[in-house]
Amino acid sequence: MKSLEKDRRRRDETAADMARDVQRFLDQQPVVARPPSSWYRFTRFARRNRTMFVATVLVLSALVSGTIISTWQAVNATIAQRETEQLRREAVESVDKLKKSNVLLDSARANADEQRWALALGQYTKAIELQPNHYFAWSGRGALLARLGGWHIAADDYVFALNLGEPANNPAWWGVPQLCYLPKQNKAYQEVCDRMKSQLETTDDLGQIPMIVRAMCIQPRSEHEIKPLAFQMEALIFEQDQKDIDRPGHRGMSFRPKPGQGPPGQRLPFPVGPADSRLMLNHILKYSAGIANYRAGNAQRSLELLSQLRIHDEGGPFGTMASPVMALAFHETGQPDLARQELADAKSFIDEWLTEMEESPEGPRMPWFDFLELCIWHAEATTVIQGYPPQADQRLLELEGRAGELLRQSLQYQAN
Questions:
Q1: Which residue ranges traverse the bilayer (predicted)?
Q2: Tens digit of each residue's pLDDT (9 = 90 or more) over 43-93
Q3: Count of the separate structural domains present in the chain
Q4: CA distances from 346 to 67, 118, 340, 352 (A)
Q5: Last residue of a domain, one of 85, 104, 137
Q6: Range of 42's domain?
Q7: How many other CB atoms sit within 10 Å of the CB of residue 34?
């Protein structure tokens, strides 16, 4: 382009000058025909020393990349170290809180046994505050609230424990399905029943099986679902009768709890000796078989089993609990007078329990979960036989209110 310049002073003076410029271009040297910029000279130099330039660039890139990676790793290591230290501190703090929470739970159970209700509730509440995900704290407080008659708020605590992952497959959860069924916590009720039902295929515990059946029979279900349970209970009754066939006199025994039995503050019908244990087991099995047969659509067989139970446990816990179920079975078999009589008996048993709850320093003889089951069956029987549900008993509402007030006091105490 320089050879074509109009201004002669800016053109190559001779052909030799132009030849030398062409040679410089071929030798990757800066040519005179181009402006001598720094970038142009640098590119010419790089082309002349391509190998050395590429090697230098690779070395520099490696150094820069290594520096960047090392810095990034150092930053990550520092962050990880800080996170690890934070997790270590949180773990130590969590273990410390768990220890304090467990101490509170032990103390709360002891205070509940001594009927120091407010103190026990406060300790359960403090344990929950320290460890909100400690499901034993929630179920422990729920058990105490249920014992005090605060069934609706107790159900809330048990549902919380269930959502935290408590197995709900052990004796501590006996009666909890009924507790969830009462306030229509249907999802929780069904979940507890499902967890309990899954044990029927693996357990041979004669204490666990009837409780599972009782829980499932609280809610009306399809006959197809209940018939296997009724058959299983009948088989267990037959098996126990075969074992007891060489034990003369066991059928004529009638269990009565002795004073001072059971946890402090409760007169529970716990067995006294082997004979009483066998009789109690027989009563539990017949009661469970009776309600299972009723739910399975066999009201006549239900009456046979519950009548047999009534003979040997008249005035006892299961003879008492049989009344509303027998009322339903009598109603279904066309015996309205007997149905109304059993319904009235169930109501009188409820009144007796509430009176004992108010007046007896040791509390009622029937455990709260048995009484709750009696109330649920009584409500169903009243609705079926009379055509309308029973009125809410003011005494039950007062129990619920007192339990709620004790809980509020414990929450206020913890807040202060």
A1: 51-72
A2: 666 666 677 767 777 888 888 888 888 888 888 888 888 888 888 887 788
A3: 2
A4: 85, 32, 10, 10
A5: 85
A6: 2-85
A7: 14
| pTM value surpassing 0.85 | no
| Of residues 242, 249, 304, 254, the one with CA closest to residue 279 | 254
Q: What are the DSSP calls for 229-244, one per residue?
A: HHHHHHHHHHHHHHHT
Q: Is 342 left (phi over 0), alpha (psi -120 to 50) or beta?
A: alpha
Q: What is the DSSP secondary-structure string of 98-164?
A: HHHHHHHHHHHHHHHHTT-HHHHHHHHHHHHHH-TT-HHHHHHHHHHHHHTT-HHHHHHHHHHHHHT
The answer as to whether 69 is a domain residue is yes
Q: Do 363 and 372 form a contact (C-beta atoms < 8 A)?
A: no
Residue 99 contacts residue 131 (beta carbons within 8 Å): no
At residue 73, the 3 state secondary structure works out as helix
Tell whether 270 is covered by a domain. yes
Tell me how far apart the alpha carbons of residues 284 and 263 are, in angstroms, rounded to a whole number.
Answer: 20
Question: pLDDT of 107-116, one tens digit each?
Answer: 999 999 888 9
